[in-house]
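Discussion board: Methods & Data

I've been asked by a reviewer to show the raw model output for two of the constructs in my manuscript, not just the figures. I'm not sure how much to include, so I'm pasting the format here to get opinions. Each protein appears as its amino acid sequence followed by a line of discrete structure tokens. Is this the kind of thing reviewers expect to see in a supplement, or should I convert it first? Here is construct A:
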Amino acid sequence: MAGRLSIGVLLLLAFAVAFAHPESFLRDPYDMVAYFGGSVPAGPDASWQGIFRWDVAPFKYRVLFHLIVDGLATVMDLVAPSVSALARYHAAVVWVSAATFLAAGFTLDRLLGELGFDLTERLVGLCAWIALPPVHQAYVYPTCTKEDFLGYALLFVGLIGMLRASPKLIVVAALLGATTRETLLILPGVVLLRGPGSWPFRIACLLLSVAVVVGIRGLLGLESYGALGQGWRYNLAHPVASLVGLFFLLGFTWVPVLALAWPRFRYALGDRLTPGQRRFLALFPFVALALLAAQLVLGRMTEIRISFLLSPWAIALLLLALRGLPLSSILSRRRAVGPLVLLAAVVLVEASGLARLLRQGANRHLAGFSGRSWWGVLYFQLAIGIYLGSCIASSSRGRPSSRAPAPAVEA
């Protein structure tokens, strides 16, 4: 009970920080309307129906989130009719956003528990997840999260269902995911490859999910929104911004992910894996390839929320890498040397005025990441990444064992 309370308080504070960001579109109702592309209700008796353009593709196909928001706004019409339509709808969006944020955090905690991590490790994992840009910058351009935390929560529930070999959880998460965002089709794809149950069940799960996605488009009217051409052309036209977006996608957790290319780390990691962790990590190459390829072709790489479905694998790798070190080693003073050198260099460059010139030159190529807050995020992610690199190097010292690399890491 105390553990759940600690996690709840942590997640509430994290949402409050993301909500209170100076550039958050959730803070101000008029900023929300501008971002949603609708119109401000005119007059005291006006409806909130036009605030969000749900009739525009691709938003109209992601029905679950806006049905929840519209349902809560309808209830608030009855409970607080004297409040303006804009204020009611803004409150509904904020409350649903907070609820889905908490749901994603709690289901990630449960997923880490299913993978065998204790309470302390799960709290570290949640802190790492919150510290990643797609979470603490969730409501800032160009992240601009709406239904994504609901999608994360459903993915985590589906993965829990796989670890528990629960067909009901898998089917519910897959079908609801198909009504939330089309990228959630990765879940039935993973089930097809490595899921529990018979081949007919796994194929049926995928086909039903695809049928839901196609059926929604059939019912609401198929509308082309040029994703294929726009996303690919934008990424080619903004290579620097696309690479920065790729880095911000997983931030400092790229360190344990990229460390998989180091044989010593793979051997050391293989010695620590349980069968469940091995099966879970074996999914990572397929998920990473599918999501990153889809985003490169169909979406902008600067929209870092899209492929953030990779986060549970990155967090699990991070925790497994740290598990091989005692706390005294993780908190060793010498590990702070790299981040402190980086901080000193940043302070020196800022004080000299060179940083302003560098930003002015770089901002022409950074697109949505040109805001000053994103530079702070970049420094933070690099500093933590340097620290983690030192930890992982220590945890992987010594001769590799004679046994073959773990299939989960090699897959």
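Construct B, same format:
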Amino acid sequence: MTKAEYIKKQQDLLASIRKNLQEYNSEYNQNHFDKAVVISATIDKDVAEYNSIAQVLCFDECASAEDPMRAAILMLHYPVISVKDVMIGDEVKVAKRVIIGDPDDDEQKPKYKAIDLLKFQKYVKEHKGVKIGYEPDWNNKVERLNYLFALDCAVELNMGEKFIAEMSDCYAIKEASKNIDFGVKNPKAGTPISNTNLLKALKAVITAMIGPEYAAMAMTHDVRYLKKVSAKKSRKELTVACANHRFMRGYVAEVCYRIMTEGSYDVEYKKVDPKKK
């Protein structure tokens, strides 16, 4: 399909989704739940196809660039849609399913999905016959970096030598990735990896992705950012969940984006309501 045909298909899907949402909301609020379930399945199928086309359009645009990896990192994400149930009305609340990220609704904020660089690489290889990145093993290096960050997280939480050894053996990582040498040794219990050495490893990954000229601009605060976002509170008490490789690919892509755009990090926090001051 051509780009124009893809866009036309998206428009047709959006029109179908809107029509089916009207029918769904009518049937649901009349307690015709069996009919509503059938319509809901059709809506979900159309939303999935719409978003699949959105990914193809994004990948095609990036793949056509002189450097597909850099183009994908500069784009970072692409617009998608979803549906959500909300309650509307003042005195009497009525359930209504609506589109989130509707491109024709100026009052809505766009909804985005991050580009998965590994999926993008497979797409480019299939359609262009080439790999992306400055070095062909960039993804293996991301996995090795993620492995180091996960082990270092455990060490910083004062996990014992037995746990660190077991984690090192059982961590889900390809053998080719695990054996990559950044010149940075795995941490031992009680001895975390220094930020200097983690930066050394990060620079090797950035080089593999977008080139040494960008890797030279990586800073220690890039390491600190990755530490903050790659380890989050688990649902289990007193437990930290380390990022899987897909998420780490996205986090490193954000670091590359910061470097390429000369951007800076930000911190979100709850602010005092000025009306209550």
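Answer (T.O., handling editor elsewhere):
This is acceptable in a supplement if you add a one-line summary per construct. For B, something like: The beta strands are 77-80, 82-88, 94-100, 111-114, 231-233, 240-242.
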